[in-house]
Amino acid sequence: MKKILGLFMLAGIAGTAYGQDKTPEAGASRWYFGISGKYLHVAESIKFLGNGQNYLNTIEAEEPSTSLQNEAGWGCDLQIGYFFDKKAQWGIATGLMYERYKGVLSLDKLRLQYQSTDFQGDVFRQVVTAERPFTESLRTTIVSIPVVLKYRRSLSDRLGLMIDAGAVINIRAHVRSISDARFRYEAIYKYVGDGAGYTSVYDADITPDPNDWLITEAHYQATSGDGQEAQYFEDLRQQGYNVALGQDIREKHTVFYRTGSVGALLQPSLTYAVSKNVGLQLGGFLMYQRYGGTKDVLSKKIADKAGSYNSYLNNAESSRQMSYGVNAGLNLFW
What we know:
Elements lengths: L1 H18 L11 E18 L17 E5 L2 E11 L6 E18 L3 E7 L5 E8 L3 E21 L4 E35 L4 E4 L11 E3 L1 H7 L5 H11 L4 E6 L2 E5 L5 E12 L4 E14 L24 E18 L1
Antiparallel strand pairs: 1-3, 1-15, 2-4, 3-4, 4-7, 5-6, 6-8, 7-8, 8-9, 8-10, 8-11, 8-12, 8-13, 13-14, 14-15
């Protein structure tokens, strides 16, 4: 990545130096309109907040380690600009930029124990465990407004150089996710006498009280061992208890990142004049963008009721993205 950035910077310096000793044709057009397509790769780093903070009285939450792998993507942008100096070499431009790419977020584990209330109003300890590593298939869409300083220079009668450098303002960034997971939902009940009967209380000890009612797979296997634990859990679930074994999860969700963040763009290109007012361009680009989750989604629980799931991206405190690739397009001047 540093090598690519270095090459882009050298291209910009070289183009500026070249422009100091070569004067453009008299009467050069000042207005510019460009449309281009992008083939891009995205190196992305996401910082996650712990999901355990979204639950009541969490006990030793086992948060997952995450890895993110993005595929190549594509994009397009429109620009309109004006070259303002006497020689019509320097200008400013703005427009609209669109990017889309796919990726896979992999999570290795998850175990949450927290206070909950059941269908009868009884307090208990809910235990949610990922029975295997799980994934989220992602499709990211980003819409931004570039605000750039443009430099152009003729290298020959038809060949030229154009360099964009400036800011990229995010106006919309969202990720559509499809989860592929399997969870186990277990419960631990503790009852204490209150003189008129028994009342449920929350057992917050790491090791449950020996007299607790343990609706867990391990306890059933240790005490019954008849291989009927799946039916036992299903019977209790039908009664209203929030328990289940081997619950497959395949949920679709959309997560919106915070808007208004500002990134940076460097885009050097070679241009070819088809005519006085029409040109082609081909080059590369390097773009940095940073996003963060909003406060309302950061409060969502990844799992709670049996079969429910919210994208782990809801816990993204920030996402840093470095996009790079090839840019090709059509330029109009007047």
